[in-house]
Amino acid sequence: MALFAEYSPRKPASPRPEPIAGLGIRTAAPSDLTAIAALAARRDDETPSAHYKRFEKTIENPAARIFIAESEVTLRGFGVAMHFQRADDAPSNTAPSGWYLMGVVVAPEMRRRGVARALTGARLRWIAERSSRAYYFCNVRNLASIDLHAPWGFKEVTRDFVYPRVTFQGGVGVLFTVDLGGGVAEVGGA
To answer: pTM for this structure?
Structure first.
């Protein structure tokens, strides 16, 4: 499976996909780790065990939160919010300290049905309780992610930055930010 969703913007005259009935967003619990790791492995074509260990550390981290989207008691997707603290001796182009949206993974059969949008809104509302600013970064080729975040007002900061242990295969990374001082707007649609 592709690392990020194929870009296929909805044309204004085309009908919206049917949203998922009863979609709920909640904070992940340790009992969700197996399903989260399985979905992440499905996206990356890797085994769930390595993902499980990484997400186990994330769920135990007080400066991080995993959110899950579910309907009919089935995981439809998940997203992570995490605080990054820039090291004192970091290179000058290191991403700034702050709260980051650290990726969203949606089951392929659930894409374009509002799951990623619901997870993004929930994570931004959670971050807004802790900070007046949020960040995210992605590959410049990940147009689906850029379009997903645009309705909240994310603006490009730079393409000249580093973030520890992150590389952008086949492209350039772009760092975005949004001011949350006025609250988080509700963004509808699928």
So the answer is: 0.87
